[in-house]
Amino acid sequence: MKPQLALHFVGSDGLWAPVDRYDSIAAELADGHYSRQSPGDDQYLRPGRYVAFVHRGDRGRALWSVVHNVWLGVWRWTNTHFANKSGTLSSLLVQTATQATYRRWIERYGKLPAEPLRTEVDVEATAARRSRRSEPGHCYRIAGWREVDRYPSKRGTTLVVLEAPR
Question: What CATH number did the domain enclosing 142 receive?
Answer without folding.
Answer: 3.40.630.30
